[in-house]
Hints:
The chain has 159 residues and is mainly α. It contains six helices and two strands; from the N terminus they run αααααββα. A hairpin with a 3-residue loop joins β1 (120-122) and β2.
Amino acid sequence: MLERIAGIDPARRQQRPGPGRWSIVEVVEHVVIVETGIASALMRDPSPDRPRRFDGRWWRYPALRLVLALGVRIRLPVESIAPTGSASWEELQVRWSEGRVRLRQWLEGIDPKLLGTPRFKHPIGGWLDVPQGVTFAGDHLAHHIPQVERVLTSLGEAR
């Protein structure tokens, strides 16, 4: 996605395709915020004061994956993942790259016993373990790639 966007005129990256719609940079900022949050939650040790427990509603995570795969537009479940519009393209590229490197390094050294434990609480999908959290990050990115393409098409930047 970054390679596709990198060749676009910087002014076009900032341009919103319509009222209430995100620019390409805002989509990327949202993805970076989400991925950073997932990575941070996965890497953080649980607090003894706030135990993490799967709640038995196992169907929520597969349902979330299905909705993302179908390309259904989902309202932000929490405002904290909304783009601010203040991050530069260059800053986002660095944040995304650094975050992925940190997560990869953590995953390479993880104790296998942690893999199946609840590590990230998605507001819709509930508690996710490490493989589910990483898979969700990929599903989330894949969900936004067509959005970027739609924005590019609306701006006359179709492939």
